[in-house]
Amino acid sequence: GAKARGRGAYAFYSEEMTQRARERLEIEARLRVAMEQGQLLLHYQPQVEVASGRIVGAEALVRWLDPEEGLISPARFIPVAESSGLIGVLGQWVMHEACRQARQWQDEGLPALRVAVNVSPRQFHLTDVASCAAQALAGSGLAARCLELELTESALAERPEEARQTLLRLQALGVHIAVDDFGTGYSSLAHLKRFPIDVLKIDQGFIRDVPGSGDDLAISAAIIAMGHSLGLQVVAEGVETAEQLAFLQGRGCDLYQGYLCSRPLPAEEFAQLLRAQA
Ligand code: C2E
Ligand code: MG
Ligand code: MG
Ligand code: MG
């Protein structure tokens, strides 16, 4: 009967929950060891000026190189790092490593780039991101204007006044702030006014079906126009086709990222790409 089915469904559901909880605990324990053993690394995806085609920046994206499994995607371990609190140490490492690498490229004579570092919501609220950035800059000798932090709207929506104070400290340092995955979050327009933001990154979900989808065309065009009228730089994410790039050119979008130029690359391959351009 319905009752039995209900109980069965519940048992199944709770088994699945237990399974998922076990997996999280396992990933958490392994991640702890991986961090101690230096198994995290950064890949870099070019940020390209739409008008000139030149690489002017890089987004640092963390990977976990497991000796047995190979490269593990951040989608699998960042949520675990967030819920376990490991994100504090992980985020600090990412910030230091990205600044160190960007400065090393400059020292090797490559053109000065802006490096963008992701900061997840819990990391933003649990840790002192402004002090962390200041230390990473001082430790590496990278100029603050070469560092950009990517935050999502959800990070700004939580305890907004505290968030604003942190962004003001970052702004005073000279670090740029980007809103990542823009358009997917909540109360976006109010945030733009309240926070010292420099860059909007149009979520790749809006770019995916350009130029086929009229709605996505309209939304992307509106974000570019609004960003520009507020004096912000606009970056399109997930650009894979020449048609998408042509649309962005037509709308005067500033920068793009995506497989059309390159996937995220290990540091050495990224440097080769830069050298080829120089
Ligand atoms: P995100 O910051 O929005 O990064 C963009 C994601 O889109 C990256 O996935 C990138 O590899 C992927 N991507 C880039 N170009 C294209 C394209 O043309 N087509 C498609 N389909 N995808 C593209 P990735 O590297 O797996 O990172 C996923 C997410 O994990 C990131 O989303 C970010 O939220 C988070 N993440 C990555 N690294 C870090 C980190 O160091 N710290 C924190 N807190 N989060 C990170
Ligand atoms: Mg990002
Ligand atoms: Mg994004
Ligand atoms: Mg994302």
How confident overall, as mean pLDDT? 93
Share of helical residues: 40-55%
| Number of strand segments | 10
N-to-C SSE series? HEEEHHEHHEHHEHEHHEHEEH
Output the keywords.
binds ligand C2E; alpha/beta; eight-stranded mixed barrel; globular; 20% strand; binds magnesium ion; 278 residues; 10 strands
Question: Could you characterize the architecture of this molecule?
Answer:
This protein is an alpha/beta fold. Helix content is 55%, strand content 20%. The protein contains twelve helices and ten strands. The protein has an eight-stranded mixed β-barrel, surrounded by five helices. Helix 1 crosses helix 2 and helix 5 runs parallel beside helix 7. The protein is globular and about 55 Å long. The N and C termini lie far apart (72 Å). The model has no long low-confidence stretch (mean pLDDT 93). The structure holds ligand C2E and magnesium ion (MG) (3 copies). One magnesium ion binds next to loops. The site of one magnesium ion has 4 residues, from loops.
